[in-house]
Amino acid sequence: MFMKTFEEKWTAWVDDQLTGRELSEFLASLPDRAAAEAEKQNAKQVGSLLRDQAMALSNADFFSHQLRERLDRENVPVRSEVDAMQAGWWTIRRLLWGGITSLAVFAICTVLVFHDRTPSSQSQYLTQILEYRVDPTVSPNATISMFEKKDDHVTVLWVDGLQSLPPEYAAK
Amino acid sequence: MRLRLPLLIAILSVAFSIGGASLPEQTVWSGLIIATNSPPTEPTPAEVTQIEGTLRKLFGYSQFQLIGEARKTLKTGEEDWLATSKYFSLHVDSRGEKADAYVLNLKLFQEQKLLLETKARLSKASPLVIRGPQVGDGQLVIVLVVQ
């Protein structure tokens, strides 16, 4: 057998489980018997209260779970949720702006590059003759002149002295 | 802050509209024409009609018969093509575009014989007219136009 500790004896006394010599020894060991009796009465009242409420707590696990979830919801800092949303929104917004800005820069650069390369439809320049040449062995008497008809906006390369050809050369 | 989005949209719209407008297809029409005073056998081609008055003033002929033509759409500006008739051919070698014009190397052949070689900067707004050899009672005329 083994010796009971004070706490075990105390619990047994509160539950009215101590009897005989064990009870008298325990009561004699109490330093303040009146305080101990008061504490015993309090413990009994709490016990009876819990027994009375036992029906209401028949689904104790479920109740506890619901309670914990509600507490979690209420305790999650609203501020951090908002912060997270704002942080996400800011990130998306920055990405959006970054994308739009990049597109704008790309479009402007493209326009500038192609604008420089493409002939304008409103060109006012006349066609220019840069070089001209006839083979003197084929056309020894040929002479070439060029002029611009500015009123008609036409440039003409006028070749004289080429060998005349018969009408059949007009065939398609 | 609220003005930035409309501003960017406006910039993009302008940029794309200008970009789209600055890339038209450029086609060069080259034609071999016999100018005569004989009665017309067929209607004057539309490309010649545009400069028919100028050709009449230049050469003194009233009729213009198309004997060969080529129409080339330039994409890179560095293409070459050939306009041919039975006896004549015009080889055109485009060497790129510069200052609102195409730089073209032109070679006029009579069969295998090189009659004329020239290099021109063909402007969109200005046709090039070349007076070729006399053919019968008419005249060979070469015309190049950017359309």
Task: Provide structural commentary.
The complex is a heterodimer of chains A (172) and B (147). By secondary structure, chain A is mostly helical. Chain A is built from five helices and three strands, in the order H-H-H-H-H-E-E-E. Chain A has helices at 6-14, 20-29, 33-52, 60-75, 78-117; strands at residues 128-133, 143-149, 154-160. In chain A, strands 2-3 form a two-stranded antiparallel ribbon. Chain A is rod-shaped and about 155 Å long. The model of chain A has no long low-confidence stretch (mean pLDDT 82). With 147 residues, chain B is an alpha+beta fold. Chain B has one domain (23-146). In chain B, the strands form two sheets. Chain B has a four-stranded antiparallel beta sheet, with helices on one face. In chain B, a hairpin with a 2-residue loop joins strand 7 and strand 8. The interface between A and B is large, with 54 and 62 residues. Strand 3 of chain A pairs parallel with strand 7 of chain B.
- β-strand number of chain B: 8
Average pLDDT score of chain A = 82
Give helix % range of chain A.
55-70%
Q: Order the strands across the largest sheet of chain A as they lie in space.
A: 2-3
Oligomeric state of the chains present here = heterodimer
Structural class of chain B: alpha+beta
* Helix segment tally of chain B: 3
Distance between the termini of chain A: 133 Å
Rg estimate of chain A, integer Å: 55 Å
Give the percentage of residues in beta strands of chain A. 5-15%
The major pleated sheet of chain A works out as: 2 strands, antiparallel
- Separation of the first and last Cα atoms of chain B: 46 Å
Radius of gyration of chain B: 20 Å
Domains counted in the coordinates of chain B: how many? 1
Global outline of chain B: elongated
Average pLDDT across residues of chain B?
86
Counting DSSP H or I runs of 4 or more residues, the number of helices of chain A is 5
The biggest beta sheet of chain B is recorded as: 4 strands, antiparallel
